[in-house]
Design brief:
- The protein is built from ten helices and 20 strands.
- It is 29% helix and 27% strand.
- The protein starts with a helix and ends with a helix.
- By secondary structure, it is of the alpha/beta class.
- InterPro entries: AA_adenyl_dom, AMP-bd_C_sf, AMP-binding, AMP-binding_CS, AMP-dep_synth/lig_dom.
Length: 365
Amino acid sequence: MTYRQLNEQSNQLAAYLRSTYAVQAGELVGILLKRSELLIVSILGVLKSGAAYVPVDPDYPEERIAYILADSACKVLIDEVEIAKFKEVAGEYSKANLAGINQGEDLAYIIYTSGSTGHPKGVMIEHRNACSFLHWCLEEFGAADFDTVLGVTSICFDLSVFEIFYTLSTGKKIRLLSNALAIPLHLNTTEKILLNTVPSVVGNLLNENIDLSAVKVLNMAGEPVPHQTISALDCHRMEVRNLYGPSEDTTYSTFSRIWDETSITIGRPISNTRIYILNEGDRLQPAGVVGEICIGGAGLARGYLNKEALSAERFVADPFLIGERMYKTGDLGRWLADGTIEFSGRKDDQVKIRGYRIEPGEIET
């Protein structure tokens, strides 16, 4: 699919949503589709209509799908049935760009993460959050030598925001794969690949002796990066980065270029981001002393959908900047002498599996 085809089809879908469902700025539209070019068309179509998209993975358990759809109360659900309806009348809608109706503070998307109460919680990301993140991406990867991004991440996981929107903002190619298991099938190529995934996937590729010579840029996020993974990579031939950040701060909050196994940290804040390491009294910890990682800045989400009390508990007033907020991550870390941050684990019993946050409370329930 070309950029022109993508733009025209998403314009038609946006016009269809406005005309058929009177979609307004900031309203919610669910997307429940298998991975194909129509998934990208649908995401862009929803955004162009002015609505915010709510991703739902068709491989999720039925109970989780039902909860997300009920909690979000989406005005429309774009599934295979809705796509079929749209295709029947697509020719009636203009391929031209629609007039924008969004403001920076409007919702762009809601991603559901695991919740300790037994149900996932919807993180509300605004357009201005995503735009700030993408500006940093364009700056950080501006000189990176690649031409194709492998889109391997579910749209329900925020690494997909980087894979989809950063790629499209550069005019480069995104190759949408079914999942990370398909990566080896797309590495025997003359293309220069950017791979954005979790460290456990990279570890599996290395264990299976997969040739990574086509990978020119490797981003790892969502889990701590093992030393043995870095030892097995040529970090001078390819650009290797460790990226850290919760969904509540729009994908990535800190970054580190890794050169060898002695330099594995979560790095420094990305642009327009503040990182504090605080003690139990919300006082700054000295360098070298472990505390809770708290985040402020332009990427900070609006809060959790329909969970005002939890939002107030986790998104609090920034004690160092009047009128600003910060997010209490529950992650532990410490400043090192060189100004980077070392990740030290969790305050609670939350775990991550292949980059996905899992609250034991959700499983127990």
